[in-house]
Write a structure and sequence with these properties.
Shape: globular
Number of helices: 19
Distance between the termini: 22 Å
Strand content: under 5%
Strand order of the largest sheet: 1-2
Order of helices and strands: HHHHHHHHHHHHHEHHHHHHE
Number of strands: 2
Oligomer: single chain
Radius of gyration: 23 Å
Length: about 475
């Protein structure tokens, strides 16, 4: 009788080092580098200071990523910030982090990047005007739906999409950089003369420029969301970080140098899409290449967000902080199908809102509060649980410097945008009654039976089950 090897139903370790680099680089490089140079220059006032801020944002992101390399190799669970807060401070702080990601950060980010994808893809079709709003939202919904299906169907497909589209965005940025360097070699340096002229002396404006720059670097901690699916995570997680952040910083700074070769500071402040302005100036009939590749860049960004967001909600459900159904895995595809479906549906619902971009104002404070709390948890665990296995442990000065920067980034909005910061705090604190209702409250038998019945129907319909442990 032939032995039949039965596979354990669990998430598989399929993410390689190359996939990890593609997830980090591909998630960071979304639409930001193509649109946010305006925000950085507005805050800085001069070309010289703007380039310094872009470099500083890269260094700051690298410091944070080094801290997350230690966290990810010490606490080897998926879930990122949520897993670290749960380990250090218990269920309530972790739930609040999960809550704000659930109702704002993740679905809003996916919807906005998908909308940006749609706008850029449709731009060659509507060269002289804005694309119709309905067409843009429909294409964004199709983007989210398609990528949700891909992520449900096979992990390998999702990682290949991430690899290919990361390569595409690096290709278009390399094209822009090489063009800029060639023009500099031909003597086009007028915008770099008196590079620090008109530099602002207002610290609050510089801090807002830092915020704009750091928005473009967002995503450096996303690989920590999928630690359990990485091959050799204690080696590949930190190595992916060490490779990715210098690459992104190098490309971002040189891309901005290239922009300033062709686009003067005054002109850059009047455009919302500097990469498109750049391509229209230099590439002539082939200028459509850049908006299309920006769209492809956003497509890869949506894929990375869906991939990591599904894992976050899966881990939250596995810990009992979200419905049990979301903690289940497809019996044959070994993907967290319910959690990915949930992510896609939430993101498509966000597309209905006319005020979706207003939610961006509340996201930054919540994101940096979450990051700061994770760094505090790392320092707390160093002190209270020194016996934990730490394959990597950096000098105390690195997390301390990064934490000081995070505190600064949390204090500035209190002064610069107190209303948005207050709303962000209210949204976070609204998770306390949600925690009581969803986690602590012992449901009556009738409600519990109804929930169990719906869970069983969902299991049968999608062919999913709880993750099994290794035999």
């Amino acid at each position: 009788m032939t032995d039949v090897k039965i596979k354990t139903v669990q998430l598989k370790r399929e993410i390689t080092l190359v996939n990890g680099v593609a997830i980090i680089v591909g998630t960071i490089i979304g639409s930001g580098i193509f649109v946010t140079p305006k925000g950085v220059l507005e805050g800085c006032g001069s070309v010289g200071l703007a380039l310094i801020v872009w470099t500083a944002c890269g260094v700051l992101s690298l410091l944070g990523a080094l801290c997350y390399a230690e966290l990810g190799t010490t606490i080897t669970k998926s879930g990122g910030d949520y897993a670290y807060l749960l380990e250090a401070f218990g269920p309530l702080p972790a739930f609040l982090q999960l809550w704000v990601n659930l109702i704002i950060i993740r679905p809003t980010a996916i919807a906005i990047v998908a909308l940006t994808f749609a706008v850029y893809i449709l731009q060659p079709v509507y060269p002289s005007c804005e694309p119709p709003d309905k067409a843009t939202r429909l294409l964004a919904a199709l983007c989210i739906t398609l990528l949700s299906i891909v992520n449900i169907w096979k992990v390998r497909w999702a990682t290949r999409i991430q690899d290919w589209f990361t390569a595409a965005k690096l290709l278009v940025l390399t094209l822009i950089i090489v063009t800029g360097l060639v023009l500099i070699g031909m003597g086009r340096i007028e915008n770099f003369q008196n590079a620090f002229e008109n530099t602002t002396k207002d610290a609050s404006k510089v801090s807002l420029a830092l915020y704009s720059g750091l928005f473009s670097y967002a995503g450096w901690n996303f690989l920590n969301m999928v630690t359990e699916e990485m091959k050799k995570p204690q080696r590949n997680l930190p190595l992916a970080i060490y490779i990715s952040l210098p690459i992104v910083t190098f490309i971002y700074v040189l891309a901005n140098v290239a922009y300033f070769v062709l686009v003067s500071p005054k002109e850059l402040l009047t455009t919302t899409a500097v990469a498109v302005t750049f391509s229209n100036r230099i590439y002539g009939m082939m200028s459509w290449i850049v908006p299309v590749f920006v769209g492809l860049s956003c497509f890869g960004g949506v894929n990375g967000l869906i991939f990591t967001s599904g894992r976050l909600f899966f881990v939250g459900a596995r810990e009992g902080h979200l419905p049990e159904f979301l903690a289940m895995i497809h019996m044959k595809k070994y993907t967290p199908m319910p959690a990915i479906l949930f992510t896609g549906i939430l993101s498509c619902i966000m597309l209905i809102s006319d005020d979706i971009f207003a939610l961006l104002n509340y996201m930054s404070f919540a994101q940096w509060l979450s990051v700061g709390a994770s760094i505090v948890s790392m320092m707390y665990l160093r002190r209270t649980r020194p016996e934990m296995n730490r394959p990597i442990m950096f000098h105390w000065s690195i997390p301390s410097l990064f934490l000081i920067a995070v505190v600064f980034l949390l204090i500035v909005p209190l002064y610069a945008a107190p209303r948005d910061t207050g709303i962000g705090m209210i949204i976070i604190l609204s998770g306390i009654p949600a925690y009581w209702l969803g986690v602590l409250w012992r449901k009556p038998n009738a409600i519990q039976k109804w929930i169990t019945k719906l869970t069983i129907i969902g299991q049968k319909s999608l062919e999913v089950m709880h993750q099994e442990k290794d035999a």
